[in-house]
Write a structure and sequence with these properties.
The chain contains four helices and five strands. It is α+β, with helices and mostly antiparallel strands. A five-stranded antiparallel β-sheet has the order 1-2-3-5-4, with helices on one face. β4 and β5 form a beta hairpin. α2 packs antiparallel against α3 and α3 packs antiparallel against α4. The radius of gyration is 23 Å and the shape is globular. About 25% of the residues are buried.
Length: about 180
Amino acid sequence: MAAQDAASDKASVSEGARLSWFARQLALWSQAAEPLRPLSAPRARVTAQDASWPLTPELISVGRARRLAIEQVGAWRLDELPDTVELLVSELVTNALCHARGPVRLNLQVRDARLRCEVEDTNSDGPVRRSVCADAEGGRGMEILDLLAEAWGSSRTATGKTLWFELPVSVPAQTGGPGSL
């Protein structure tokens, strides 16, 4: 009888340990997945220094992304940046739409005298630098980023990747939040 009780206790301890492990894993995954928002929704609540827009997977979204970025940069009174932002946003969004299947999200934020632009997509492959001939129609996006951005990079995310660039700003954003667009 004592052997049966010991075996029963051992089984319940083992089952409790498995349940405890499962509960811990569930809690970890819940925390990791909680901040994720689908790319078809803005990344977070709009603030005076953050803006985010979902873009449909259509080529007309490139023009929409340029307009949104230029309007936001204007609202933040970053008057020295519209042309550079327009070109770089166009490059990143075009790349995302050509190489990823699914929605894309454009994020802008001003922090510590820097404008950071991010384009999120569903393809986890990072950017590829190519050698192109002089008359090629494409393939120069990374060189343009190198020339115009102070910093740029790519990072994998739970939903794909984020390609980003940063530009210095002379006057941090004060007013004209994203809700004013």
